[in-house]
Amino acid sequence: MTAPVTVYTTPICPYCSNAKQLLKSKGIEFKEIGMHDISSDERMELMKKTNNYRTVPQIFIGDTFVGGFDQLNQLNQSGKLDEMVNG
């Protein structure tokens, strides 16, 4: 069973585009949520889950906060991304 991947983004963020492209290139389905599409309460809850991480993208695999594009790319290069997504 694959873990759901969620990517919080903004429209003009190149790192968001890079993260989405990496996931697409690996055939990993993900849910994209625009930071401007969530309420201030939802943003506050997200900040709690990410330990006040303030940049985008904010990437989750299941309930695990991965970080941003750099961290996602490191997981991919080490082979751990597939393990996390595919269990």
SSE order, one letter for each helix or strand: EHEHEEHH
Q: Structural class per helix/strand content?
A: alpha+beta
Chain-averaged pLDDT: 96
Cα-atom radius of gyration: 12 Å
Helical content, roughly? 40-55%
Q: Could you tell me the strand content as a percent range?
A: 15-25%
What does the largest sheet look like? 4 strands, mixed
> For the terminal residues, how far apart are their CA atoms?
7 Å
Number of helices: 4
Strand order of the largest sheet: 2-1-3-4
Give the low-pLDDT segments. Answer: none
What is the 3D shape?
globular
Care to count the β-strands?
A: 4
Fold and architecture overview:
This protein is α+β, with helices and mostly antiparallel strands. It has a domain at 21-66. It is 45% helix and 20% strand. It contains four helices and four strands; from the N terminus they run βαβαββαα. A four-stranded mixed β-sheet has the order 2-1-3-4, with helices on one face. β3 and β4 form a beta hairpin. α1 runs parallel beside α3. The termini are close together. The mean pLDDT is 96.
